[in-house]
Write a structure and sequence with these properties.
By secondary structure, the chain is α/β, with parallel strands linked by helices. The protein contains eleven helices and ten strands. The radius of gyration is 20 Å and the shape is globular. The N terminus is likely disordered.
């Protein structure tokens, strides 16, 4: 998702963003709401120092508190419809008028993850994403976020930001994400990556990525949802058996292939499995929101995260048939939890 030259020149600072070690320099004056690209120099954990473009979108009243919203590995900078882009965003239901993150009351910031364009074919750590956020905040003149709301992969990035750049956010809401990947979920992702690799060997890149996405959909949802939606007898099609869920899975795979480069998916999938954070190093308020029935981030892992956070963490649990995807599908109940957590008073920072 690259901006046009005119778009880039309208909003990008005239000089490169400083490297992470200079992230504590005084921020420049805030720029108006807009969508653009920041030239950045990022010292990555595994791929050395890289020059890249951080694609972002900033929308909402200039005097409103800033909330950075980050989603799963396929999420992007367009979170919700706004004056810059009236098309629905990936988290549209969570940012509708009247919601806890009502864009009329919040200044919403989002960015495309490092590696999301497929240009970086190297291991990417969630720590790299957190350092990129710090660079972006410097470039936009945002000294501190009122809140970082992270869903799935975004929760991992938020935890890294809380450890590496604690002065850049007042609170973190981590939804369906933990301090480390569960071995079962890591094995599932490893198999998906092997499917993509097999497709590439067969010169069938799109088919491999589509099948990997279809396998992923089974981990994002629950058996209970599939039983409710797809409890129908199989049919014979051209002499082969076709089960009720296949049309849904095929459509999910085709939609994903149309918008996600294979290299980006592979590297960001790996990034989830590289993720490690020591919760004891977090010294700011963290709301951990878990979904009972999440097959990728089991409730036990969320409990372990909350226990590791000690007095800095509080755990809320949502029971939903949508599993890991509850934040995208069970939006009304998820919004109620967000509203409750955002309303909780902040303790004094040391």
């Amino acid at each position: 998702m690259h901006p046009s030259p005119a778009e880039r020149s309208a909003v990008a600072p005239s000089r490169p963003v400083p490297a992470p070690e200079a992230a504590h320099a005084p921020p420049r004056p805030a720029i108006p709401a807009g969508r653009g690209s920041i030239d950045a120099v990022l010292a990555t954990r595994y791929a050395g120092t890289r020059r890249l473009h951080l694609q972002y979108e900033l929308a909402g009243p200039e005097d409103a508190p800033v909330a950075l919203v980050a989603g799963g590995i396929s999420a992007h900078r367009h979170v919700a419809a706004n004056v810059l882009d009236p098309s629905p965003g990936w988290a549209q239901g969570l940012l509708d008028a009247g919601r806890a993150l009502d864009p009329a009351r919040w200044r919403i910031l989002a960015f495309d993850y490092v590696g999301a364009d497929g240009a970086l074919d190297a291991p990417i750590d969630t720590a790299d994403q957190a350092d990129a956020v710090a660079l972006l905040l410097d470039a936009l003149g945002i000294a501190q976020l009122a809140v970082f709301v992270g869903y799935s992969y975004g929760a991992l990035v938020g935890l890294q930001l809380a450890v590496r750049h604690p002065q850049r956010l007042r609170r973190l809401i981590a939804v369906s994400g933990a301090h480390r990947p569960h071995p079962y979920a890591a094995a599932w992702r490893a198999l998906q990556r092997k499917v993509v690799a097999l497709g590439q060997l067969q010169c069938a890149d799109e088919q491999g990525l589509s099948l990997a996405r279809q396998l992923a959909m089974l981990s994002y949802r629950t058996p209970e949802e599939f039983a409710e939606r797809f409890d129908a007898p199989p049919v014979l099609c051209n002499g082969q058996v076709r089960v009720a869920a296949e049309d849904y899975l095929d459509a999910a795979g085709a939609k994903f292939v149309a918008r996600m480069p294979a290299t980006a998916w592979l590297r960001l999938s790996e990034s989830i499995d590289l993720h490690r954070v020591d919760p004891a190093q977090v010294r700011l308020p963290v709301s951990v929101i878990a979904v009972d029935g999440d097959r990728l981030v089991p409730l036990a892992d969320a409990v372990a995260l909350q226990e590791g956070l000690g007095c800095h963490g509080r755990l809320r649990v949502l029971r939903s048939e949508y599993g890991h995807d509850a934040f995208l599908k069970d939006t009304a109940r998820m919004d109620a939890l967000l509203a409750s957590e955002l309303a909780a008073p902040l303790p004094a920072r040391p």
